[in-house]
Amino acid sequence: MPRILALDAALACCSVALVADGVVLASESAAGDRGHAALLPPMAAAVLRAGGAQALDAIAAVVGPGGFTGIRAALALAEGLALGAGIPVIGVTTGEALTAAVPAEVRAVRAVWTVIDNRRGRVLLQRFPAGSLVAAGPPEVFAEAELPDPPPQVAVAGDAAAPIAAWLAARGCDAMLCDQRLPEAAAVAAVGALRLAGTLPPLSARPLYVEPPAVRRPA
């Protein structure tokens, strides 16, 4: 199994983990949706020190969807570290990271919907069939009332999971609300290992923006 440094700063938390052979050797996280660019480098340095001096096989980073600044900060750090070490950077979507953290016994029998609040009255939905970490398609934008028909059994994860799971349940769907609300770097590393092994299709480490960034007009 590979030795992977994983970075995430897509939503209201940033986290770093060093994982080898599926075991988390060191990890750090910080809550908040600001300051990721300043927080991530010292967190990564601390995790690498704590995890030992062995060489890395790859760096995995969340590419989005999520906050513009956090995603760019994580990818810039990943690219810089990877360039110095001569190793690849592996992209992981926010939905993949959330789904990988859902317990395997749940994923085996339920489809997973990951839903992220876009702060504009809509959600960013990525759908995963039961028993698979290969998404049924890219993330899509929906208003709550426009969501597609769900499968008979679905697990819902992400920072918008609570209202969406309640909305689905009110319409007769067997919707399970998951604890996974924000990506975790250890799950990012797990997806990165599968991608590195060729089990998942490749994904470049470029920002994945489903929508253009919100722009405020000057007052």
Features:
6 helices; alpha/beta; five-stranded mixed beta sheet; Nucleotidyltransferase, domain 5; 2 domains; 29% strand; 219 residues; globular
Description:
The chain has 219 residues and is of the alpha/beta class. The protein folds into two domains: 3-94 and 182-196, Nucleotidyltransferase, domain 5 (2-Layer Sandwich), CATH 3.30.420.40; 96-177, Nucleotidyltransferase, domain 5. Helix content is 31%, strand content 29%. The chain has a five-stranded mixed β-sheet with strand order 3-2-1-4-5, with helices on both faces. A five-stranded mixed β-sheet has the order 8-7-6-9-10, with helices on both faces. Helix 1 packs parallel to helix 2 (68-85) and helix 3 (94-101) crosses helix 6 (185-196). It is globular, with a radius of gyration of 17 Å. The protein starts with a strand and ends in a 23-residue tail after the last helix.
